[in-house]
Structure formats: C-alpha cells, structure tokens
Specification:
Blueprint (H helix, E strand, L loop, with lengths): L2 E4 L6 H4 L8 H17 L1 H12 L10 H7 L5 H19 L6 E6 L2 E9 L2 E5 L8 H14 L3 E6 L9 H9 L4 E4 L2 H10 L9 E3 L4 H11 L4 E2 L7 E6 L5 H12 L6 E6 L2 H15 L5 H9 L2 E4 L3 H11 L3 E5 L3 H5 L7 E4 L5 H6 L25 E9 L1 H17 L3 H12 L4
Parallel strand pairs: 1-11, 4-5, 4-7, 5-6, 7-8, 9-10, 9-12, 10-11, 12-13
Antiparallel strand pairs: 2-3, 3-14
Helix pairs in contact: 2-3, 2-8, 2-9, 4-7, 5-6, 5-7, 6-7, 8-9, 10-11, 16-17
C-alpha cells in the first residue's frame, strides 16, 4: 500500500525527502486577484466571494451573540467535556512558557532591560471544510489569552446554511473569543491583513489552511501583516526499529494521511521484514476507516524507507525536518536527544501524534515543508513581542563614550559621535 525503498544511497535521500506539494502558478494568480478585490471593495468583495466560492448568501459577516449562545446546545456533553480538559492542559503548558524579564547593568551606570508585551490584535484562521478543526481554535486562542492579547478575532468559512460549525463557536466561546466572522479562504486572510468596513485589520495572522490560504498568508506576510509561519500540507515521520509495534506505527501513518490528499507519512525502519509488516497492518486498518479516498491519495505520495541503522535514521530525519516526528524505538530518548529539526517530537510507543493534536498541552500549529529547520511551532512567544529599554547615567555614558565615538567615526557617522560629546561637554548639575 505504501512504496518501500530498501537502503537507498545517500545521493537519493534528497529526492526521497521531497514533499507532495508543488507550486501552482494558477493558485498564486487567483489568490492575488482575491486579495486585490478585498483591498479595493472591502465587505462587498467578501459577500460576493462567499456566494461564488462557498455557495452561500450571507446577510451579515459577524456571528451574533445569539448564534454563539445557541452553539453550546448543539455540542454533545462528551465533546464539551473533552474541550474543557484540553483547554486546561494547553493553558498549563503555555503558562509555563512566560518569558522572564531581563534587567541588567552591562557596564556600571548602563542599565539594559527587556520585557515581553502581547500583540494587541491577532487574527485566527480556522478551517471549516469537511472537518471543522475546532481543536485549532484551542491551540491558537488559549495562548493568545495567556499572552494577554487584548483583541482576538476569528474567521472561519461559512457552511451551506450560512453559519459556522457549532463546535467551532463553542470552542471559541470557551476561550473567550467573541469577535467571529463567517469568512474563509484567501479572502479571509486579506480581510484580516488589510481590514474592511466590518473586519478591522490585525497585527498578526495565525492558523492553517489549504493552498489558497497558505498562498494568501505568504503574500500579506511580506508586506502588511505578520504571520505565524509558512505552512503546507501536514506530515508525519516515524522512526522505528524491529522491536516496535507495527500496528502502532501503521495507525500513526494513517492518522496523518487522513488530513488531506497531499499529506505525507514516512516511516524510517531497519529491515524489509518490518517494513512489510507495517504495510500489511496499514492495509488492514485502512479498510476500517471512513476517509479512505483521502488516505489513499496521501499514501500514494508517502513512503517506507529501510535504512542501515538508527544513526542514518537520525540524519535522514534532520534532513527532512518533519512537522511531527514519532520515535518508537527501544531507547527513544537516545534518538530524541539527537534531533535538531522537527516541529514536535513524540517519544515512545504510547506517544501518538493524536495526543499532541488535541489534548496533551503542546501546540499543534507547527512548521511544515522543511521549515522546522529554522522555525518553531506556535508558542506563547508567537503572541508577544519584546521591547528593549536602556538607561544611562552620566557616569555610564562617560565610560562608554570612547567606544561609541570610535565606532561612530569609523562608520562615518559624525552626528552619532557628537550626540555623545555634546552631553559630556555640559557641566554636571
């Protein structure tokens, strides 16, 4: 079911590390058109695009307080309890990330400080589509709340009835989010970035989405609005040895594959026999699942790679830089400590990626497409920015003056040097 590669030479690794996604100029062009329309036409463009793309006539963009209140009754008790438990764990983990202030004297009389402040207004994008991802509401809204962002706005595509999935509305309300709009796709990203008559522009945009959403985030992120990270199709990599449970491994590969047609699941293992056992288990479990067409499409671009040893597996994994990395080996922490590029790492047989997706406490909004080599997943810092302060006494400036003026003059910036000298020429009061 999944293609197996046995001991590929290193010169082939780069090919095997390629993702399923590909740049589509037509998508870029269409996204550019949508962004342009929203900038020029504001709300009118959002209503027309909802009709053209979502197939729905909207009376208003903003979700009413009544709609939010009614959502709770449509969510089963079991799901509401699960949301409450997940919120608690996510909150605890992100509260532990609060940055400590910095306040030191670098030189006598020279005080330097740094403090983190919350981003004022943040926009959260929540995919609606076939699977309304209410878990992403928790992953974004909880740290925004912990950080102290004063304005949190949420956009999600409307359904055919002109509403948003009740479970998304309920999750948002439990996180304190009340400003919610029926708006999806690239047009939502444009509205959050540039603002319309109804939706005020945001300082930073968060959240996953399809290729149109991703392209739109990248387009606005380089110009008018910060974004959390570039993102592409979801991916998982599993490192296993011959003592691993093939049923566990197969389940993890399948759980990621059901995200989308272009998701990718990769297994790194040490024998062809184990590879075949996982492939058999994958086929058996696949027959019991509901999203088989999506899974099948994803697995067509997935692979099982047999390597000589775990050292090679570590090298391959760090080169790939997976969004999710699951380590199911005899001594998993020995492997985990050697990982330098991954969005989130799941250590041991019982650490399924599903736990991180929903309720362990870590954030599931993670870098894909190799961005984990240089970028972190969403965390508390993502919702804050840091400001530095400095205070110099006269004595402190006197001590630094030779250093400052020498450097300024070497750069040909006389005014910088003079700004120091003019102060020191003044008599002490």
């Amino acid at each position: 079911m999944i293609r197996i590669y046995e001991n590929p030479p290193r010169h082939q690794w780069s090919e095997l590390q390629q993702r399923n996604s590909s740049d589509d100029d037509r998508i870029s062009e269409r996204v550019g058109e949508i962004i342009g329309r929203v900038r020029e036409e504001g709300d009118r463009a959002l209503f027309e695009l909802a009709r053209q793309i979502d197939g729905v006539e909207l009376a208003t963009l903003r979700v009413s307080e009544q709609e939010i209140a009614e959502a709770a009754s449509a969510v089963p008790d079991e799901v509401r309890q699960a949301i409450g438990k997940a919120i608690g764990n996510i909150r605890r983990f992100h509260e532990a990330q609060r940055p400590a202030p910095v306040d030191i004297e670098t030189t006598e009389g020279v005080r330097c400080c740094q403090r983190a402040v919350p981003i004022r207004r943040v926009g959260l994008y929540i995919p609606g589509g076939n699977a309304p991802l209410f878990s992403t509401v928790l992953m974004l809204a909880v740290p925004a709340s912990v950080a102290g962002c004063s304005e949190v706005v949420l956009c999600s595509p409307p359904n055919k009835q002109g509403g948003i999935a009740p479970v998304i509305l309920y999750a948002a309300s439990q996180c304190g989010v009340r400003e919610i709009y029926k708006c999806g796709g690239a047009q939502a990203i444009a509205a959050l970035a540039y603002g319309t008559e109804t939706i005020a522009r945001c300082d930073k945009i968060f959240g996953p989405g399809n290729r149109y959403v991703t392209q739109a985030k990248q387009a606005v992120g380089g110009h008018v609005c910060a974004i959390d990270m570039p993102a592409g199709p979801s991916e998982v990599m599993v490192i296993a040895d011959d003592e691993s449970n093939p049923q566990f491994v197969a389940a993890d590969l399948l759980s990621q594959a059901e995200h989308g047609n272009d998701s990718q699941s990769i297994l790194l293992c040490l024998s062809a026999d184990f590879a075949r056992r996982v492939d058999t288990a994958t086929e058996e479990q696949y027959a019991r699942l509901s999203r088989r067409q999506t899974i099948s499409n994803s697995l067509n671009g997935s692979r099982i790679i047999v390597l000589e040893d775990l050292a090679q597996a570590v090298d391959f994994a760090n080169g790939y830089a997976p969004e999710h990395l699951i380590i199911q080996t005899r001594r998993p922490w020995e492997i985990a400590e050697r990982i330098t590029a991954a969005g989130s790492v799941f250590v041991g047989d019982y650490s399924t990626e599903s736990a991180g997706d929903y309720a362990s406490g870590t954030n599931h909004t993670l870098p894909t497409s190799g961005w984990a080599r240089s970028m972190s997943g969403v965390n508390l810092d993502s919702f804050m920015h840091k400001i530095t302060f400095q205070e110099l006494s006269r004595e402190g400036l006197e001590a630094l003056a030779p250093t400052i003026t020498a450097m300024a003059e070497a750069e040909g910036l006389d005014a910088h040097a003079e700004a120091v000298r003019i102060r020191l020429k003044q008599q002490k009061s």
